[in-house]
Structure formats: C-alpha cells, structure tokens
Specification:
The protein has 11 helices and 6 strands. By secondary structure, the chain is mainly alpha-helical. The protein has a 3-stranded antiparallel sheet. Strands 4-6-5 form a 3-stranded antiparallel sheet. It is globular and about 50 Å long. The two termini are about 30 Å apart.
C-alpha cells in the first residue's frame, strides 16, 4: 500500500491531473485506509488531494496553512493567476460560469448533454460524468458578447491560449470546451452566488440586489493584477462588492503544475 500511495502522488505531481477512472485514483476515492495514507503523506508536504463529484479528474493543491509560506516568500505575493492580467482572470470566471454552472445543473438532473428533457426515472441512474454533460460555448458568440469588455479579439485570443495551456479549457475549432482543471479549482461555494446574483446576473436574467458589475479590460483598470488565490495549480478571498470588482476575484486551488506551462 505504501508503494501505491507513493506512485499515485508522484504521478499527480508529474502529470498534474489524473482521470477518476484511473485504477489508483478509484482506490483513493473508495478505500478509506488508502486515502488516509495519501492525505497524511501530502499533509506532511503542505499539500492535499483535490477531487469533486462533478469533475472527471483529480489533482493536488496547497493547504491553506502552507500558502503564505509558499507564495509570500518574496516582496510581492506570488499568486497563482498563471500570469493572467485582470481581463484574463475575468475571462476565466466568465468561461466557468457559462460552461460549469449549466453542466452541474444537468448532472444534478441526471440529464445528458444531448437530451432535451429530463428522464422521469433519471434520478435512479448514477450521476452522469462531466464529459457526458458538459457543452462547450462558441468562440464567436463569446467574442461578440464579451469582446469589448475583455480586451477585444487580440487580448481574448492571448488569454484563451494561456487558459488552454494550463488545462482550464480545450479548443476544438470554434468550440471552447471544459478542460481538466476548470471544475476542480474554482471555489464554487464562493463564486456561485456572487456570479449568478452579481456580476453576471444580467446574463442569467436574475435580478441582482445591487448594480451588476461590468468586467473591464486590463487596459482600463489599475496596474495591479487580481489574484486567483491558491489552495495547487491555490486562494485569496474575493471582494464581496460586485460593483467595485470587475472580475469577481476567483478563488482557485493552485495545481502543482510540474512539467506543464
């Protein structure tokens, strides 16, 4: 068992993510003793095992206690925004909102992506996997709806390329699809209410308790880059005022990211 725990951790460090169907991952999710050993080993290194039932992958993350020691060792806080400017962070939040939130609703309703309506007996079936319920969004539609607010085509293309490289999204022709990390690293509990009832309430057609925030491009904002804080590939509390903060300060688990750019 000790060797298996060592191998699983090493593979996650090397490959960043592993599918839930992987033999050792399935064991970590179902074998309490094996999972305890993994958690103990990772905790000793300031890390933790990250998974959620809605995602098809698992990854590793920094624990809260180790964040300041890892990211605060220099004069400036080394956040985990992967070099994204404010408009890049805002784009990430928009993509998460338009891809992940509808996908989770379909999963909870046991509805596949190609189904137009729910199966009345669907609740008796296992919850469908992300790849069976996740629907991509059109690049052209994204550019038309958010291009002016997210730096226009050149900036959006640059940020989309960076998000694809680190595993948040995948590109297939005109479609932008969910990547392995998009549903793993975003803090749903923190973001969901702020997004649906705040910055993107106009898109979801839900009245906001206050004026919806407008996501502004990096060129029109302060030079300071917003953090997506870490828990690997990690987390700073977002400002609760949606009027003042354009990109909703996403809370994210920073992946170890070894061998990946």
């Amino acid at each position: 068992m000790t060797e298996d725990a060592q191998i699983l951790i090493a593979r996650l460090l090397a490959h960043q993510t592993l599918r839930r169907e992987d033999k050792l991952v399935k064991r970590a999710l179902s074998d309490e003793i094996f999972r305890t050993e993994i958690d103990t080993r990772l905790k000793a290194c300031g890390m933790k095992f990250v998974d959620n039932v809605y995602a098809d992958y698992v990854t590793l993350a920094l624990t809260r206690d180790s964040e300041s020691k890892v990211f605060g060792t220099k004069e400036t806080w080394q956040n985990n925004n992967f070099g994204l400017a404010r408009d890049g962070v805002a784009l990430l939040v928009v993509l998460w909102s338009l891809i992940i939130l509808p996908k989770r609703e379909r999963q909870e309703a046991h509805q596949l992506a190609e189904e137009d309506q729910n199966d009345m007996f669907g609740k008796d079936k296992p919850m469908p996997r992300a790849e069976d319920t996740s629907i991509g969004i059109s690049y052209r539609a994204l550019l038309a709806d958010f291009g002016e607010k997210l730096g226009k085509k050149t900036r959006m293309d640059m940020n989309l390329g960076q998000l694809a490289r680190v595993g948040f999204i995948e590109r297939k022709a005109d479609l932008i699809l969910e990547g392995p990390l998009l549903d793993l690293l975003m803090d749903t509990d923190t973001l969901k209410d702020r997004i649906i009832n705040g910055a993107l309430s106009d898109i979801f057609q839900i009245p906001a308790p206050r004026t919806p925030a407008i996501i502004t491009p990096a060129a029109d904002t302060e030079a300071e880059t917003n953090e997506i804080s870490a828990e690997v590939p990690a987390d700073a509390d977002a400002d609760a005022d949606a009027e003042a903060n354009a990109n909703t300060n996403a809370n994210v688990d920073l992946n170890t990211h070894t061998g990946k750019e």
